[in-house]
Amino acid sequence: MRSMRRTWVASIGSVLLVTLAGCGGGSGEHAYTLAATRACLEHAGYQARTLSNPSLPGAGGNRLVRLRKVEPLLTPAAPGGTLVPNVFVFLVFAKDAASARATENKAIRLALQTFSSEGEAVTRAYVQAGIGLVRNVFYYSPSGAVTHQERAGLSVCLH
Question: Please, are residues 89 and 137 in contact by the beta-carbon 8 Å criterion?
Fold first, then answer.
């Protein structure tokens, strides 16, 4: 029985590895583009616009996406200038997966430097909660963690 269970687990593991290899970072994998993604975002009802970002330039362009269709109520006790969490996500279209990973590392470094210069002590994990990487697209939210549902909604429109 134990041998049968090990065989089953090994088979499932092999299937998962093959599936993941087909989905990530392979050299034959096509890159997502700003134009195709823009069309999907518009069709899905997201407000989005193209922008330039000199700190994190994308070889394929950058896009600002509004995640919520309804403006949340402001909290009267919130400090002035406070961003409403997860309202926007920035998409950076890199040339390939390696370039997207380099952009991610640069973004983390810049965020940690900025927080430190403002006297804020944050961890790398805190910064990573607001970012993501899918093939050649790096995305980040300046206002904190991006939920699983928000990540899934964005991923569907990456083309």
Answer: no
